[in-house]
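Quick look at the format.
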Amino acid sequence: MSSTPSGSPPHLAPLVVPEFGLDVPLAVALWLVPQGAEVIEGDRVVQLVAGGVTIDLEAPVTGWLAACLADEDEPVATGTVLAEFAPATDARGAA
């Protein structure tokens, strides 16, 4: 149970919808980065829309976007995991 399959990163960093304190539904508006792309911590990777407000979320780590877990136009809620990122040290280790 403690081993990971060959080529798989041992852990992934999630991108979670934070609490915005808004009383309107949230939805994924646009992915700014495709799955598999390299990112630097702080890069804008996805836009959410809440009413007439657009909110950009940033990559939590430097590495690559391993998985997009929500589609564009999909409703999301606080706490929803939108994506998973493989940290750069893991991406190099898997090569």
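Next, a different chain entirely:
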Amino acid sequence: MYTRLFRLRSRLDASDYLLLASALVALGLIICDTLTYQMGVLDEYETSEKLSKVSGSSGSRCAHI
């Protein structure tokens, strides 16, 4: 993107904007995961039966698609 913007003096394409947006989403995910880990919420993680049923049924739907 540096080359396109500053060396070639051309505009960004739609794919460049998608790349920037995905980088921002990934950065936000890393920040939220880090804060959650630092709060200690992930230390005593226990799954519930209800949650495992939901994740199991959604996983089986995705496997068939």
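Residues 5 and 49 are 52 Å apart (CA to CA).

See the schema section for token definitions.
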